[in-house]
Model the fold of this input.
Amino acid sequence: MLKNYEIRKYQMPQEEIKALIKEKREELFCQQQLIKEHKLPVFVLIEGWGAAGKGTLIGNLIKELDPRFFRVINMDVPAEKNTRKPFLWRYMETIPEAGKFVFLDSAWLDETAEDVIKKRIDEETLEKRMQQIRTFDRQLKDNGYLVVKLFLQIPEEEQKKRLDKLMDTKDTKWRVAKKDIRQMEKRKQYEDVFDRILEATNTGYVPWNIVDAVDKKQALLQVLHILTNQINQAVENSKVLPEILHKDYPLLKMPKLSEVPLNQEMTKEEYQIQLKTLQKKLKKLHNKIYRKKVPVIIAYEGWDAAGKGGNIKRLTSALDPRGFEVHPIASPEPHEKARHYLWRFYHRLPKDGHIAIFDRTWYGRVMVERLEGFCSENDWKRAYNEMNEFEKELSDWGAVVIKFWVHIDKDTQLARFTDRQNNPEKQWKITEEDWRNREKWDVYEEAIDEMIAKTSTENAPWYIIQSNNKYYARIQAIQIVIDEIEKKLGNKRPL
Amino acid sequence: MLKNYEIRKYQMPQEEIKALIKEKREELFCQQQLIKEHKLPVFVLIEGWGAAGKGTLIGNLIKELDPRFFRVINMDVPAEKNTRKPFLWRYMETIPEAGKFVFLDSAWLDETAEDVIKKRIDEETLEKRMQQIRTFDRQLKDNGYLVVKLFLQIPEEEQKKRLDKLMDTKDTKWRVAKKDIRQMEKRKQYEDVFDRILEATNTGYVPWNIVDAVDKKQALLQVLHILTNQINQAVENSKVLPEILHKDYPLLKMPKLSEVPLNQEMTKEEYQIQLKTLQKKLKKLHNKIYRKKVPVIIAYEGWDAAGKGGNIKRLTSALDPRGFEVHPIASPEPHEKARHYLWRFYHRLPKDGHIAIFDRTWYGRVMVERLEGFCSENDWKRAYNEMNEFEKELSDWGAVVIKFWVHIDKDTQLARFTDRQNNPEKQWKITEEDWRNREKWDVYEEAIDEMIAKTSTENAPWYIIQSNNKYYARIQAIQIVIDEIEKKLGNKRPL
Done:
């Protein structure tokens, strides 16, 4: 892209350019209201060569904007804490809320190019990252985001001239980073790397915009044009439904819920003996994943009163409390609702070496949100693939991903509900809503069957926990967790 | 405290101890419901010598707890990112939500002792920190928190024995930290430091509990006793109103709002000339505070339609967008409401060298929350002192703290409201609520006078911005920001 890049210039006198800038700035100012009304989040990534003027450009862009409607974020080199998360984690953290702007000063292009030049990542990791970036862009787009990607281009001589000038005086010298000097020294090499990543992440849904940044006024005008046009387009296209994709992830053949036998027996004695052995084993594995920095993500879904809570407790009581966290998931809070629906789960991912247990999960999208109409049909239909992509990213990161559907039959639920209702100590566990949900058992069952069929991938399989007998269910779950962790540690292929 | 510490032991057979532990654990289990009902947040700090068994103790404490109701947090050595915040920032981040437990594995005692031993802080900083910790504890207590502080004590020989044993085999050697070895080598020195900090932070409202940790069962039982007792007490005392303190902060003599003249004039031309000069100056200062790592916090309050937004914009348009952030403050979200009311502001503090601008602030407590009855009388009366303490901590950290009341008179507000109402482009800026608030002008004015009188401290002064003429107001605000920053940089005393 940089190689074929032709310098574009507005062929008009300075005065006219100034007038146009003023006009476009006013347009951008008015668009603040527009994006607020349309709840459009606008995510602007500003990449480019060192000394290309990223900071100045951002300063000029926001000049007329209301500071309550935008954030500018300088993506520093990641601290140790952050690199213990998936690569895109810290970018996902910064995505704007509906109706607001976020301007990123350098982003994943810059970070990845550095990693390549410094040989911190291999070819395979690079390819995976570029795939993840494409997915990230597309998911944002499909979930109502406008993503604008800009690359500020200056020729080699121009960069050299600017850096020399900065280094010339003591007052400005500190602003030249080591990276800038490296870029000058290895310009050709950087050019190749930038080009490769730019091309690989230049998609129809979120294209790159190469900006000629030699003349600052020209560059500003170009960017104002791009930005205002894309905002207008995004608003216009906001009614266009995104395509529903089915990426070709290897799906496991799963039974329907109605085909799953629930007549398992287990005595308390047998349970206690097995539990002790398994908890001991799990404890040791926890130590091992901590040292090998393997993250583990365990997702719990299940019928009301199926015994999720007790099941989770038997798992966690084997674990070092400093190495796991349980995330109870309720309906999203306003700042969560204002972002991509996977954001709040992304936000809660464990550090590597740690375990995160989700008590209810992102699958709410294709169950309660689908059935109660909290999202559109296109939203939940798209979600199967989006969640597969999300989980693929997690396992590419090195995570063990396990999903449990804690299953009981209708009669067992009724018995447990009645028991809760009649037992003063347990009454808080049962609400009117539980009874209402129970009435919708059949539509839920259908949705769950579809969910399990469409999202049980090799790297993030669903397990149906047979929980009419709670003892059996607990042993089953803990055994699966052990097996999956051992599989990962032994690097064996999943069955 | 450690010096006078007498070993306490339950004088009873092992069997009885085990039975008691079981009993107390069940009590703790039931208390989960109790704290949930009473919305009591329980913050448990576990400090102590290396190898005293902190991890094991926590593991034993939570064994019966529902993992959805607690979090265990291991307070690692702070990463660079965090040390760019006030000392207590990362502890404030971890405080529990109402109705939940947080267990901290090591906290500010451990961190501070290390800093003293390694000579990373001087005497003055140490004294300030201990004062901050006392304030932190008291504020949490007053705001409905139960804070339980435990120190696990083992004698020198016991510590040595345990560490030697750990270092003996390869499997356990990695668990011995450098700090543990240092503690063994400098035991006497550590003892003195621990003692000093323990004594200085041992208050009537949040006392220390020294736990004899030689025998693990005995230690567990002691802690279970302490914890269950303190929870019962906290629930019992939840109706007792905290004392309303007025710490002796040097207050500035401030006029009443009615005494503030609002007849300033400024032409657009004059304004534009002055603005240009001042923005240039501020831009340079921004660079300087960035390099000197001075944090700046600017708090905006004011009447509806007083021109806060426009005022903020003229300030920020002079700033490098990568070095500031504007935080619009609306009513708190659920996860914010479930915590100490200052938490969400603490959370949004800038890194040092950065500027945070709050568009509405923590002073909502003594204005809207007071007048609309969103908090109790005791709550808002206590808040003046709490906010002074909060701001004192900020300036002790090195921050410039500036508070603006953007002031207009009633007629001017009416004129601007009417203008908004009649102008289609501005209509979104005016709501029914604005009109309702306007009716309460007089009670608000009284509350604001009280607020300004009680919280205009030398280190965090209020400035009344005279905003009938918006041009005048903008110049005034930007000039004050410049003056305050220059004062800090020049280390001059405030006027």
Summary: The longest helix of chain B spans residues 268-292.
